[in-house]
Amino acid sequence: MVALAVPRFGFVVEPNLARPFLYRAYDALQAGNLLEAGVLLREAVRRQLYAECSWKGCLPEGASERTPPRCLLAALRKAGFVDECGYQIARSIIATGNAAAHCRRVNVHDLRGCIALWHGSIDNDPCGEPRERVEHCLPAVNDYLGDDDDDDDGSDWWKAGAA
Q1: 155 compared with 20, residue with greater pLDDT
Q2: pTM, to two decimals
Q3: Number of domains comprising the chain
């Protein structure tokens, strides 16, 4: 028997395509089109938040494909899936996308940073999976990465008192 990979029985997973929108937003930013980059960033955020609300079962009443991202973010926060820090960061990303989409002055570096932050947000959300199930995706940290206390390779020549 095969177990379903959905949070509840009968749930149909739909692809949200947030990441392709982020790639398109970055391409538009590289081409110098801030308006298009802002619109695509805003849509990527909305699609990801809609998918997370749908997955976690906290979609607002009457939510559709036109539900603003702030409403979806507020629903996630109200359900307890977003802490205060994540809420403020997502709000600032939404505000930057809105500003660029409405032809207000936006720093190119801010827009690029928002695209990168949202990529990281998508990467770090296990979509309801318990953290121990996704630990194998994290890089293994072992003793070979730290090189502070061994004298065999001469890497600590800069330390005071090193011979």
Answers
A1: 20
A2: 0.72
A3: 1
